[in-house]
């Protein structure tokens, strides 16, 4: 199994944003929407303009659990949604393929993120990195693991901590303190 990590550095997030902004508006929006929605990529890709434009939340049926959930749209994301969708029709997919009238595939989303990661010197990156990055930075700012557990729909705080890479960070820090014998 390929393990992916959150992007822990805010500077690296900005670097990836800059890279994608120069490459493609769609790819840039995929990155920021994925990081700021806490949705799995399989729940992001089928979204249409009408699902997010002028909305305070997104209704998503989670592909993994089949539960219908109300996901808040952050105020900081609303301006990006408006700018990205202003010339789109209500029924357009947010992340439409350039070749078909369907959304891009998970594989294409993965390729987009891997290319950007490589260009910015990041490793262990995949589509799940977006959701993990949301979780990591939500926890760093709020320290509210119970709320993050609820947002990510996890069954326990320990699963959430491991998911966002906090356990790994703690272990790494402990090894540094220990230093050796």
Task: Give a structural overview.
With 181 residues, this protein is mainly α. The protein has a domain at 10-128: hpI Integrase, Chain A (Orthogonal Bundle), CATH 1.10.443.10. The chain is 57% helix and 6% strand. A two-stranded antiparallel ribbon has the order 1-2. A hairpin with a 6-residue loop joins strand 1 and strand 2. Helix 1 (10-23) runs antiparallel to helix 2 (25-37), helix 2 (25-37) packs antiparallel against helix 5 and helix 8 crosses helix 9 (157-163). The two termini are 34 Å apart.
Quick structural overview:
This protein has 181 residues and is mostly helical. It has helices spanning 10-23, 25-37, 41-44, 49-52, 75-85, 106-119, 128-142, 145-152, 157-163, 166-178, and strands at residues 57-61, 68-72.
CATH superfamily of the domain at 10-128: Intergrase catalytic core
Percent helix, as a range, is 55-70%
Give the uncertain stretches in residue-range form.
Answer: none
CATH level-3 fold name of the domain at 10-128: hpI Integrase, Chain A
SSE arrangement, N to C: HHHHEEHHHHHH
Q: List the total number of helices.
A: 10
CA(first)-CA(last) distance: 34 Å
**Largest beta sheet, briefly?**
2 strands, antiparallel
CATH architectural designation of the domain at 10-128 = Orthogonal Bundle
Radius of gyration: 17 Å
- Overall mean confidence score, pLDDT: 93
């Amino acid at each position: 199994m390929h393990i992916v990590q959150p992007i822990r550095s805010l500077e690296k997030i900005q670097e990836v944003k800059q890279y994608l902004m120069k490459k493609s508006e769609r790819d840039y929006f995929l990155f920021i929407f994925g990081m700021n929605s806490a949705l799995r990529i399989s729940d992001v890709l089928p979204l249409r303009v009408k699902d997010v434009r002028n909305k305070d939340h997104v209704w998503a049926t989670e592909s993994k659990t089949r539960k219908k959930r109300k996901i808040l749209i952050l105020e900081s994301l609303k301006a990006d949604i408006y700018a990205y969708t202003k010339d789109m029709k209500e029924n357009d997919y947010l992340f439409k393929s350039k070749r078909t009238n369907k959304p891009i595939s998970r594989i294409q989303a993965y390729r987009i993120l891997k290319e950007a990661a490589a260009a910015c010197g990041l490793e262990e990156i995949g589509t799940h990195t977006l959701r993990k990055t949301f979780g990591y930075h939500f926890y760093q700012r709020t320290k509210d693991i119970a709320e993050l557990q609820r947002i990510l729909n996890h069954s326990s705080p320990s699963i959430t901590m491991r998911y966002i890479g906090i356990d790994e960070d703690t272990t790494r820090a402990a090894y540094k303190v220990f230093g050796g014998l």
